[in-house]
């Protein structure tokens, strides 16, 4: 029961103003998906490389997505 209460408390802290970025780290390419607070995928998956240029590409794509919402 204690875990159930903690789970409900954590869920209540995330509201509609949050975007969740999930990243799958690979050897060469990384894949990111962006979801809203309810788990609905927003946009397409983002493929980027594991270097500073890939990270900058990911950040630019996230900022572009935020500006279109």
Automatic annotation (TrEMBL):
Domain of life where this protein originates: Bacteria
Protein name: IS110 family transposase
Organism of origin: Clostridium senegalense
């Amino acid at each position: 029961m204690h875990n159930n209460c903690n789970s409900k408390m954590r869920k209540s802290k995330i509201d509609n103003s949050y975007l969740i970025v999930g990243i799958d780290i690979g050897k060469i390419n990384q894949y990111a998906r962006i979801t809203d607070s309810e788990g609905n995928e927003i946009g397409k998956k983002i493929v980027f490389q594991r270097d500073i240029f890939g990270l900058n590409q990911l950040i630019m794509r996230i900022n572009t997505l935020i500006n279109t919402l």
